[in-house]
Task: structure prediction
Amino acid sequence: MKTKGLMVVTTVVIITAVTVSAQSCSDSSGCTQVCPMAPDYSGKTAAPVSFVEGKDKIDVLIGGQHMTSYLFMDTLTKPVLYPVKTPSAAVLNRGFPLVKVDGETSDHPHHLGIFFTYDEVNDSGFWNNTTWPPQIKHIQVSEMKSGEGKGTLATVMHWIDKNKKPILEEKRTMVFHAGENAYAIDFTMDLTAKTKVEFGDTKEGMFAIRTADWLREKGGTGKYLSSNGDTGAGKIWGKRAAWVTLEAKKEDKTVGIAIMNHPSSVNYPTFWHARDYGLFSANPLGQEAFEKGTKAPDPQKFGLELEPGETAHFRFLVIVYDGTKTKKQLDAQFEQFAQQK
Result:
């Protein structure tokens, strides 16, 4: 794996002022690991996570209630999670173009659910397309395991270019965690090249959610906060940060969604393509585009290149929650996440 230019490394700050009562999640092997949702369990038994297979989709249930669905029908240009709900059933995604909602915005039809894609991969654009090819195509489910407090769904996908040739194999693992007032999804995406692959330098990527209109800053009640302490899309866009959260009020209730970038991920800490109109995206590969956009001195391309058989690793934690979270609380949850392997 090759990269062009300079890679900036940020030291993880360990928060010691916040006391967290950890709860462990046991796996089938009998060992335990600290769950990233531990602060929200409050000593209570975690709800079961289960999966229900349907036609071109897999529903995710937490405590018997629908939390989200993994959608992979051939009409989509990439698999997505939609809808995504908090424990109080607040839907955080915009419905368009899957669901028609009166008065809802209809810009950027390629922004759909929670998605992972990129616009410049060799000579194919996987971000802006609403028809295929190119397409990120679901191939198979490699693991589907329910459990108390967490459940795992793993899949295999092929990134098929505009010439209908697979250029990348994606192995994705999604671990769903159940908390008392929050849910978390631990996403791991490993991209292995089937041919030589070069990723361009663009803001159009990479791990994203298109939020419901009420959750956005422009026209809604939302407000972004980053691990750097910056607030608002204008101050967060184009900068590196370990995590960013977006909170808003809906019917007098506050809900939020946080995205955290694991230190093992490519070009950590990621840059953020956070927009006030509802796009909330982490993009580690558009380094030069963001550095130019923020007028950083001496902008440098990251320039990710993969030879056949080489793999690039990406990992993000999504936390959807009811209520509000302070920066100290999110720093503590990030530190738990960062220590996991």
User: Anything to note?
Assistant: Residues 6-34, 36-43 have pLDDT under 50 and may be disordered. The chain is about 5% helix and 40% strand. The radius of gyration is 19 Å. Residues 118-339 form one domain.
